[in-house]
Amino acid sequence: MEILEQMGAEGHEQVVMVSDAGSGLRAIIAIHDTTLGPACGGTRIWPYHSEQEALSDAMRLSRAMTYKSSAADLPLGGGKGVIIADSHKDKTEALIRAYGRFVDTLGGRYLTTTDVGTTGRDLEAIKQETDYVVGLPLTSGGSGDTSIMTGLGIYMGMKACAKEVWGSDSLAGKKVAMQGFGKVATYAAHHLMKEDAKIVVTDVYEGALDRARDLGLAVVKPDDIYSQDCDIFAPCALGGVISPETIPQLTCKVVAGGANNQLLSESDGASLHTRGIIYGPDYILNSGGIINVESEVSGAYNADRAREKTERIYEIMERVIAVSKRDEIPTAKAADHLAESRLEAVRKIRRLYRSN
Ligand code: NAD
To answer: What is the homologous superfamily of the domain 3-140 according to CATH?
Structure first.
């Protein structure tokens, strides 16, 4: 598909190709939708095999940010930057600052933050060139590590799902199987442990498993996590893990975790629905990170405000479940409908405003 055709099909507003010969920067910034506010989303540094692969990733991820911010009731649109490079070998201050200068030329239509391959230090370098950067470290006056709020949001989403399934949102005694025990899973686990949930963990990194063992958590091999006898399965590592291959292995009543793009395809959401498993849509449950960042956009960062907004993920998940039941559709679709209806309502008001 031609680029403009692809943009039209998915509703993208703008795609910017960026090149700086001096630093070797090659990047793409995709702005999906600014109906609700400036497009916000992280910058990913990844050694893409082709420009087409980088473009597809930027377009897919920027669209997902529109849905995530819309469903979380944030005044932000969706955007994403991708830099075609290996973050371990190619990342230099010159490259990052050149990227920051291009972000600046967009005049605030795009606000960047961290993603795979970028860190708080990179944001500090970008900040040398532009004010359109958020999620800076606390020491630089920013909102700091997003995974703290992301972990809280996952926990709140799990509780809303639990209420629907078991009639109470208490997770005491519930068994949660966590795939991946990185930053987000660890913060979510701390909330679960306070509530006396039972946790079993897997990871491919031995250091993560050691941390889990130190916390007294049970540990299993990566391939065994799907078939664990559990109440809640929490994907907190990779995307695409809910698939025709894994769904038959699940024994849980709830799938609720932090990983992005958990469903391999849309039909996997329908498949969970048919089996009576409640799915907490990934972008609803893991929106604590963008909520944290947004509270930096709308003034000086206030941790209490970010926490309060993140706790609202519970109510948003309740709304998703209500729409799913009312319309007899999978929760993943219900979440999309909620996000789209907010966007449509704001567009409608704009059209009315313009025609008067
Ligand atoms: P992380 O890198 O700290 O943790 C991921 C963990 O998953 C690592 O310990 C890794 O070893 C493990 N892992 C990788 N492949 C695995 C496999 N096949 N089986 C088991 N474990 C595996 O990352 P994170 O920040 O905790 O993010 C986790 C997920 O949440 C990612 O999908 C990320 O995109 C998503 N997410 C994170 C945030 C945030 O604020 N950090 C916000 C939204 C979404």
So the answer is: Leucine Dehydrogenase, chain A, domain 1 (3.40.50.10860)
